[in-house]
Each structure stands twice: as C-alpha cells, then as structure tokens.
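Problem 12. The chain below contains 314 residues. Write out its predicted structure in token notation.
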Amino acid sequence: MRMQPCPIREWREQYARRRLRVDFEPIADSTFHASVRPIFPELRVVRATLSPGFLFRDEDLLRDGDDSIGFVVAQSGQLTARHLGREIRLAPGDATMMLMGATGGVGWSENSTLFDMLIPPAEWEARGARPEDGLMQRLSGKSDAMQLLHRYIGSVEKGLAASFDNRSIIRRHIVDLIVLAATTRCSVGERSASAVVATRLAAALDYIASHFSDPGLSLAKVAQCLSISSRYLQRLLESSGTSFTTHVTELRLKHAFMLLTAEDLIDVRICDIALQAGFSDISHFNRLFRSRFGDAPKGVRAHARMGSTQSPIL
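Solution.
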C-alpha cells in the first residue's frame, strides 16, 4: 500500500475526527502520510497506515457517547498504547483493547500499519465475556486465537469469506475470534467453534488460490502448511461444497482459459500454457478442458485469434 502526502489539518478535521472519531498528532518535522482502508464497515474494521505520530480520543470526541470496545492490532512497527493510566508496548501482531468512552490512544515513531475495530458492549455480553479482562493487556500475536483472527481478517479483506458467508455471519465470526483472543474466561462454544472453522476454511482457500499452479500441490502439503490434518482439511473443503481435487482443477482450468485467450500470449504453445496452469499431463488437461468449456484448447485459441470468442461461464 502506497501512502500519499496530504494536508494534515484537512485530514484530521474532515476525515479522522468526523468519520473515524479519532484524532492524530504527527511527530514534529515528519512528513505526514495517511492511508485508511475500510475492511468491514459493520464493525468499523479498518487498516490504517500512518506516518509517525499519536492516534487518540480526546475529551471533545468523547461527547459522541460511543461506548464501544476498541480492538487495536499492530500490523507493522512497534506501537505504544496509553490509556486508563497505563502504558504498554505492542510488537507486530500483538493487540490490546481500549474504551472508546475514555481518553487515550496509540503512538509510533516510524511509519506503521494497524488494524482497528469496534465491538459494542452488547456483543460481549451476549457471549458471557468480560471485556475488562483484555483492557490494556498485551494480547500476544503468537496465540492461536490471534493467529486465527489475523487469517480471518485477511480473508475478509480479500473477499474470500464473503464467498461462503453472509455479512451477519462474518460479523459474528469476527467478534467470536476477538473474544477468544481477548479473554481466557470465555469458553469456545458452538459459535466460536464456527468462527474457527470458517477461518481455517478461508485460510485453506487462500493458500490454494496462491499455489494452485504448482503441479506438486497436494492435500497433504496444504494441510501441513496450515498445521491441520489432511482428513480435517478435506472435511473443511467438503463443507463448502467441493473437494480438494475439484477445487484445484477448476482454478487451473480457469487460469488456462485466461492464458489461452490473452492477446500477448497467443503464440505461446498450448502445452506450455497447460504447464503454467499447473497441469503436468497434457492429454489429461485436454480432456478436462473440453469437458469444462465445451471445446478443445486449440479451438478456444482459434476463436480468440479471430476475435470472436464467446467467453463461457467461468
């Protein structure tokens, strides 16, 4: 993410204070940069990359009456949180909780990225959780719950979670994972277990989407990289209505179709296209391609060369 310089006064007054309901004080003599990307507006989940400074809530901002619990995650750089008379430091991956109804904030001495999200008190109460357990506590980014939360937020940001869950389910999963990360007094329960399953499924799909063109990709390899068993991974994929082989094959075929019809690749051999897509057996590739798209790779390329390709439903 590239940050662009912008007028600090305008950004603070028109965006930070009005929309984010926070303020920002830059470190003297540093060039101001800001980039804020909304990820899930329902919980005001944002990813912010800012130049050195201090992000805070002051007495004037407290007049909005917001009583939400802020959950702040250090994505890059060291953060220092000052709130409720305490000060703690967060390494990349660590998190803490802060009250929107009390003054305080987080600061950093170099360009840093953080995730911030707001959880209404009722969401905690519905899960029998005690938000005070996590207030101004350093929640280690190495914990299983924090690792799962990082993965799920990443999946939401990439749109992978939305492929299988509606927004109310995504909201529930995010809150469940935050509660798990923030307190040890709340048992996992069925809802939290559902969030864990959704996170692991999204992580598996993300990994497969990034590695499907590897001819050596296997169910066992993906499971090993995700630290789960092959059997459990297969059940996760089946719960989404597919299998490992079916899902990988579909990704490879769609990629092969895109390569075959790309103008700048029109002279690349079909066998090389198949290899780039992850197929090591050309005959097998041809059979699968015809079955999926109703024409052989050669035919699809011929139509592309004539500029009359009727793109099939991908």
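Discussion. The longest strand covers residues 33-40. Students who got a different answer should revisit the alignment rule from Section 12.3.
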